[in-house]
Amino acid sequence: MRLAILALITCLALPVLAGDLNPRPGWAVHATAKTHAQLVEDTRAAITANGLGIVTQAGPTEAAARRGITIPGNRVIGAFNNDFAVRILALSTAAMIEAPIRFYVTENADGSATLGYKLPSQVFAPYLDEAGAELAAIAAELDARFAAVAAQAIASQ
User: Fold this and answer.
1) Which of 31, 68, 102, 107 could form a disulfide with 36 if both were Cys (CB 3.0 to 4.6 A apart)?
2) Which residues contact 86 (CB under 8 A, 6 or more apart)?
3) Does some domain include residue 65?
4) Does Signal count among this protein's keywords (predicted)?
5) Which pTM was predicted?
């Protein structure tokens, strides 16, 4: 009995993980058969191949491991380029808070990985009243660019 109670307490003390990344409004979500490490590598390569730069990278997985906590692979990769930045800044200083726009690579419970990102048109939507149709057009260009990155990153599974 004591062992069962101890096991229950131990399980309750473990971090609760939210689960696999699922589709949601305003996002593109692509489940793959790739491993997390492979999808991160392929996403980085696809970002640069499609004319964007990797501006930021962050993820809690390695830091958690150093603390003795095991969590699924989790990497956020911020991507943008100066051409888009200059064009957006000419329309809205406030909108640039959204750059870089991020790709999100998550490891699923079965060991596969998912690539997700908020659609750039969704990210910049709050600034359209200020910046107008030109910002909408730039966001549409970014939607196409991000879709091309995703298509390349998830290819050849």
Assistant:
1) 107
2) none
3) yes
4) yes
5) 0.86
